[in-house]
């Protein structure tokens, strides 16, 4: 059983969503993770808890709050409208915001861990060599934290590909715009089109396995190089 | 003190009768289509009052229930959103032959959470589209298919197509419209009606000739074949009391 045109559309949209989410998340998560790794601030625990929330919240809760908040009556919806962005639900931008929240801990936590394991020593050495803070970050910290960055990217990407509850809530299931692979599979099952559901579901299973296998191999190599 | 003794005396027959009552009262696991959410609460409460049996209700979409029943879900009665699924279950031997019947005929409504958006004639559809139009996925939900059919018959499908957002069932279509994310929604009349009138927002009751009748069939499933509570529920759904309740939510028979 091959894929239908709508299946391919869903696959393409899912890959685009996951790639965009991952790219934006890495940029936003790096300073946050850096701050969490180094700060002594009293509210560090609270910030870490907020970052970890999507790990324990059902995605439907996240999606429901996004739907209410970014609807025309919600404060988020009034904000996006006053900025001339329109309303986020049922758009690719809305899915992107949802996905970034949903995958946030998968980007922040590996980065934070990697930054913590860099330790103080390389920073002090860089400082004695008169490297500025930005210089140190880009030329010392980032190369040393490479394993964590790759891990953050792969996990964010894979987690976003598997997203279901959030897109179900705020997506609106529009072909080519907000219908991703997971909602397409759900639709096939509900419509009792089991062969199509099998084809897509099997693809998803194979993809997830490949990602985790690649991560395991990568981890082994990076401990051999850096460990 | 005396009055307490008297009260206790009065309670004795009840206490003695309780185990008898419990022996008769049963439970029935019912899978209920999302458009019946509100009326089923009332029907289940009245059913418990009338018969002493308890209906344990699971709300969901008919397609999902079908998949779950095929995989051995312990539902004893299915109140579907269509008439095809119960027929298919009977043919496949998962439903008890001869127990299938139409328990309600649903009505489609065009609805907005805003009290001033939808006029009683549905003329709002003929104006240039403003905002999104929520419908249930027409491939999955009969109410979604009915919405597409009505738009087609009105010659307005092409106009509205770019505005359409789909919920996976009629419950989600309602949710999109109720939060205002969609200005309009084709929903089940039962979702916005209580005690015989539209209870919130504004609605146009779509005329019956614009779509195929939304016959909703019920069937007793194999796990419920020998359960008296399942039979009692099916009989109760055919009673005047149950029909009066359903009529108040806009269903017909």
TrEMBL record, chain A:
Any one annotated GO CC term: plasma membrane
SUPFAM superfamilies for this protein: MetI-like
Membrane topology category: Multi-pass membrane protein
Subcellular location as annotated: Cell inner membrane; Cell membrane
Pfam name, any one: BPD_transp_1
Superkingdom assignment: Bacteria
Keyword field: Cell inner membrane, Cell membrane, Membrane, Molybdenum, Transmembrane, Transmembrane helix, Transport
Function: Part of the binding-protein-dependent transport system for molybdenum; probably responsible for the translocation of the substrate across the membrane.
NCBIfam families for this protein: modB_ABC
Family that this chain belongs to: Belongs to the binding-protein-dependent transport system permease family. CysTW subfamily.
The name this protein goes by in its record: Molybdenum transport system permease
Phylogenetic placement of the source organism: Bacteria, Pseudomonadati, Pseudomonadota, Betaproteobacteria, Burkholderiales
Gene: modB
